[in-house]
Amino acid sequence: MKIAVLKEAAGESRCAAIPETVKKFIALGAEVAVERGAGADASVGNDEFEAAGARLASRAEALNDADAILVVTGPDPTTLKGAEKGALLVGALDPLRRRDAIDGYAAAGIEALAMEWMPRITRAQSMDILSSQSNLAGYKAVIEAADAYGRAFPMMMTAAGTVSPAKVFVMGVGVAGLQAIATAKRLGAQVSATDVRSATREQIQSLGAKPIFVEQVAGIEGEGAGGYATEMSEEYQKAQAELVSGHIAKQDIVITTALIPGRPAPRLISDAQLATMRPGSVIVDLAAEAGGNVEGTVADERVAKHGVTIIGASNLARTLAADASALFARTLYNFLSAFWDKEQGRPVLPDDDEIVKAIRLTQGGKVVNERLGAA
Ligand code: NAD
Asked: Distance (Å, rounded) from C-alpha 293 to C-alpha 171?
């Protein structure tokens, strides 16, 4: 089994392997070739990969006869020449937005596996790239907010007077939101948080933050299907808007993380609500790529509206390249090793396995995933 680790395209700082996972793949009996410079932006040198047992190679050399190709983001299919027919391509392949590339993988005979479509089942928890990256993004969102905020987070009592603590409101308490709450608490802020799933109330309290919930209309009981939220009724949205209006004017920092799979991000803060916030307040919108939770969010930009800075954050995990790579690389290892067949010395992916069915996009020259329209 030959594994190729590719250098990512410009703009992607993460790497799909770290020396630790290289060693573990070799211990399973695989050979690992790492494209030179693959770890440079994630603070992993060529020499470290080599010391872990990998062979350093050009892209063409790494791909030559590769049985599995590990990536963070999906490469252009034309850059994968030389890989074996049936080679696995494992990474965050963004299937819905990169349909042409997925067709290209099929045409090249590559078996593409989209790690972001990993089902939310207990067995797959350690293979979940979305959680590992969202956790880091939630942390970094608070750091970005603190950096843009012209005041301090903790309360400080000094001889020159008292600095009051920042009030932080987290909207959407999934993986990113929970880490944002924990980070803001560690920095000494007064933290409140909201979600549509009732199961998050206790989680918010356990982190020492205050839950702010719509009480008059029922939200989603427990976790929601597959752990995910759905679009809420008009009645709920109206009640939520009123609740937010009453709360937001008193907040200094808002971190929004609300997402609904396969749908645009729900709009949680209107321009009129923004106008009620104190000048100098900061919003970090982690849903920016999905259209944003805040009216006026622009992905990858900072905009000022009514004296409030709105940071349209997309893919903040990328800015923590070393940690993000380590977690990402381990999820890939956890996935491939879970399916490893010792006798054959390679992973075997059964057609009827729940995980395989969810993440396999292409096989035998065809697109085979139901979510991409395959029968
Ligand atoms: P997500 O990124 O899809 O959404 C972020 C949060 O936004 C969610 O908590 C969601 O309920 C909330 N949200 C959606 N619409 C909203 C609205 N209108 N107002 C306020 N909040 C809104 O979610 P996520 O972070 O990926 O995780 C959601 C849940 O799934 C968590 O409970 C998590 O523990 C669970 N999970 C389970 C597994 C597993 O079992 N393998 C893996 C990952 C996550």
From this structure: 9
| pTM for the predicted model, two decimal places | 0.94
CA dihedral 95, 99, 101, 107 (to 10 degrees): 110
pLDDT score of 219: 83
Q: Do the Cβ atoms of 3 and 32 come closer than 8 Å? A: yes
| Residue 369, helix vs strand vs coil | coil
The Cα angle at residue 346 between residues 348 and 64, in degrees rounded to 5: 115
Work out whether the CA dihedral 94, 102, 117, 293 comes out positive or negative.
positive
Q: Which of 59, 67, 131, 251 is catalytic?
A: 131
Contact 66, 336 (CB under 8 A): no
CB atoms within 10 A of CB 78: 9
Query: Which residues form the pocket of ligand 1, taking CB atoms under 6 Å from any ligand atom?
Result: 120-122, 124-125, 128, 130-131, 134, 171-177, 194-197, 223, 227-229, 232, 257-261, 266, 268
d(CA 26, CA 24): 5
CB atoms within 10 A of CB 265: 22
Q: Quick check: is 271 catalytic?
A: no
Query: For the chain, which ranges sit under pLDDT 50?
Result: none
Q: Which residues pair with 303 in a beta bridge?
A: 310
User: 């020259």: which residue's tokens?
Assistant: 365
In contact, 115 and 90? CB cutoff 8 Å: yes
Type and span of the H or E element at 85: none
